[in-house]
């Protein structure tokens, strides 16, 4: 019975969502919307028809896991939206990779590439949201791989997915904060056109940012939710401020035709179609890292519902924020020669401010607004990486796991202290590669996107291979379009890996300037293989599914719900009747014949107590669904 529940069977179970209202067969988020002749044309009704389960008798059946609740469960949908938004960080993310889209096509690549990347990223997020609504676990994608793959390959697929996620989370910290350090220092280029980057100074600023973001995560965890919410307001406000000031101060603007159709591929060396595809890397760098959000599940209220709502909403906000950032930039875009040829050491966004506004004070103000968004991203990157580290160590994925599971109480909050320190330590070592070879360091940053994308793709592929059976009963459902969305997601994973393996420019390409991201990724996989041989096959356990959960809940079926107490996990009710009669002033007892009824044979364990239910047992064992194991 438990195995059937775990793999998405159709066992009738009571409501496990935490809602005081009972679950109705086939119920969905929008099942109570009016559905009349004209109502079917409403967008909400169309969405309802799309996401309703194919089987109208399908009952919501959420998996539970045997993990002790250590971290505080207090995050809401708004918190998830804010954290996701800070991880993707549209204003700075697009600013730091602007040169890629400018080199590989310019306007067309920047605008239409953003739309394409957003669409495929939405497919990936929808696929993962459906899975997390069935399996709300902080292991995220590496738990999904274990639960959705064939049992024979469950542990090994979870191991590799976990290492891809973990390495991606650590390199994501480096990617965000190192680019942030470069951006902060490029502010000197607003005054001095001959500015040259000093790698040692970049490292100094980088370590300052790393210490700042780690300190906030360790010592001020109670403010993280407010920080995440503030990130949404600040990022949107920054985008609107940039739009207004650029258009207001601009000395020249482009026509609509120029904005929508200009394609300049004169600097990349790629054929035009390939240049456009390679230019997608600019947007892919920005819309990345959302798979890390699922590592926060332990701290989210009602994660089976709030996680899908949060990550999907954050992508829509990210998409529109990106559009309103791109269009004004394209309206006032200076000549490519000024942005890419004359001052290559300065980030293009700084030069756009400088040449378009022609005011040092206003340009400096806009750069400062973007620097604050970098700090939001830096804090969010450490938050998600530390939770990923904590979850993977808890399952035995890291050596000396007990050391990394140490938590610290800060006022009323609990934080994974050592997981934060480990994430910071790894992130402190990697940038040293930039001193030796800039090309090698850039390859590490490219592999960040590849590892995170692959970690998202593995569970989606496993889901398709088992014909989507194991997500039945989730709180969020893709219905008939599930196969299409999952297929598009897998296609996108492959395409991103190819794009990230290509150098943006092949004109004058040398071995020292080659893109080695794919080589670095293979090296990471080789390290994961070595780790599995050394300690993983002995200590790694994978997700701990509570296989008894539904077995216990199924006992509370219709006709067996007369619970005595809402505070007891188990209630034993004796069907006592007054089996006596009086005769000659005396009370005489008798034993009535036992009625013939269906019997249940089995055992239920909870801690050290064991309750047996047999064929000749007159005692009824009930489970109180109001309490969660």
Automatic annotation (TrEMBL):
It is found in: Membrane. Residues 1-26, 584-617 are annotated as: Disordered. Its main location: membrane. It comes from Candida tenuis (strain ATCC 10573 / BCRC 21748 / CBS 615 / JCM 9827 / NBRC 10315 / NRRL Y-1498 / VKM Y-70). This is Amino acid transporter. GO terms for cellular component: membrane. It is a multi-pass membrane protein. GO terms for molecular function: transmembrane transporter activity. The keyword Transmembrane applies. Keywords: Membrane, Transmembrane, Transmembrane helix, Transport. The chain crosses the membrane at residues 75-99, 111-132, 153-179, 199-218, 230-250, 274-294, 315-333, 360-379, 419-437, 443-463, 483-502, 514-535. It comes from the Eukaryota. Residues 17-26, 597-608 have a biased composition (Low complexity).
């Amino acid at each position: 019975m438990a195995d059937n529940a775990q793999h998405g069977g159709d066992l009738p179970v009571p409501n496990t969502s935490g809602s005081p209202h009972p679950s109705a067969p086939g119920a969905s988020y929008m099942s109570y919307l009016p559905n009349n002749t004209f109502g079917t044309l409403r967008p909400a009704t169309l969405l309802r028809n799309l996401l309703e389960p194919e089987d109208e008798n399908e009952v919501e059946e959420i998996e539970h896991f045997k993990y002790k609740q250590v971290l505080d469960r207090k995050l809401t949908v708004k918190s998830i939206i804010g954290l996701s938004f800070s991880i993707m960080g549209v204003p700075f993310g697009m600013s730091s990779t602007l040169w890629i889209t400018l080199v590989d096509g310019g306007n067309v690549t920047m605008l239409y590439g953003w739309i394409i990347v957003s669409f495929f990223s939405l497919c990936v997020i929808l696929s993962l949201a459906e899975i997390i609504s069935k399996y709300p676990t902080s292991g995220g994608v590496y738990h999904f791989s274990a639960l959705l793959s064939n049992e024979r390959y469950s542990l090994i697929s979870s191991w590799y997915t976990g290492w891809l996620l973990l390495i991606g989370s650590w390199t994501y910290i480096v990617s965000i904060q190192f680019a942030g350090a470069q951006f902060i220092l490029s502010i000197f280029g607003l005054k001095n056109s001959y500015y040259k980057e000093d790698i040692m100074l970049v490292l100094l600023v980088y370590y300052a940012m790393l210490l700042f973001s780690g300190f906030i995560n360790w010592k001020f965890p109670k403010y993280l939710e407010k920080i995440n919410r503030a990130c949404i307001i600040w990022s949107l406000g920054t985008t609107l401020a940039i739009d207004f000031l650029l258009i207001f101060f601009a000395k020249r603007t482009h026509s609509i035709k120029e904005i929508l159709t200009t394609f300049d591929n004169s600097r990349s060396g790629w054929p035009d179609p390939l240049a456009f595809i390679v230019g997608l890397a600019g947007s892919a760098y920005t819309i990345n890292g959302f798979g890390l959000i699922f590592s926060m599940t332990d701290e989210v209220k009602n994660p089976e519902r709030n996680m899908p709502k949060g990550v999907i909403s954050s992508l829509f906000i990210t998409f529109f924020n990106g559009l309103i950032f791109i269009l004004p930039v394209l309206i006032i875009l200076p000549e490519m020669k000024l942005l890419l040829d004359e001052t290559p050491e300065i980030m293009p966004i700084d030069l756009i401010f400088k040449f378009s506004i022609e005011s040092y004070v206003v340009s400096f103000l806009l750069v400062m607004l973007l620097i604050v968004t970098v700090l939001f991203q830096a804090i969010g990157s450490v938050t998600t990486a530390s939770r990923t580290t904590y979850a993977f160590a808890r399952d035995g994925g890291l050596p000396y796991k007990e050391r990394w599971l140490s938590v610290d109480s800060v006022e009323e909050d609990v934080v994974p202290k050592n997981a934060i320190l480990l994430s910071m330590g790894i992130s402190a070592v990697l940038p040293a590669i930039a001193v030796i070879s800039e090309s090698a360091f850039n390859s590490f940053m490219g592999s960040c996107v590849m590892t995170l994308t692959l970690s998202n793709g593995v569970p989606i592929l496993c889901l398709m291979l088992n014909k989507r059976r194991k997500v039945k009963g989730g709180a969020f459902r893709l219905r008939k379009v599930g196969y299409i969305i999952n297929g598009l997601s897998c296609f996108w994973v492959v395409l991103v890996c190819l794009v990230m393996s290509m150098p943006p420019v092949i004109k004058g390409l040398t071995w020292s300037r080659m893109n080695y991201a794919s080589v670095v990724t293979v090296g990471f996989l080789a390290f994961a293989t070595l780790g599995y041989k050394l300690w993983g096959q002995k200590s790694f356990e994978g997700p701990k599914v509570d296989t008894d959960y539904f077995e216990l809940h199924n006992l509370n079926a219709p006709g067996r719900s007369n619970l005595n107490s809402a505070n007891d996990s188990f209630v034993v009710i004796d069907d006592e009747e007054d089996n006596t009669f009086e005769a000659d002033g005396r009370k005489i007892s008798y034993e009535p014949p036992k009625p013939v009824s269906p019997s249940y044979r089995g055992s239920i364990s909870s801690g050290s107590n064991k309750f047996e239910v047999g064929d000749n047992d007159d005692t009824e064992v009930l489970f109180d669904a109001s309490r969660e194991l």
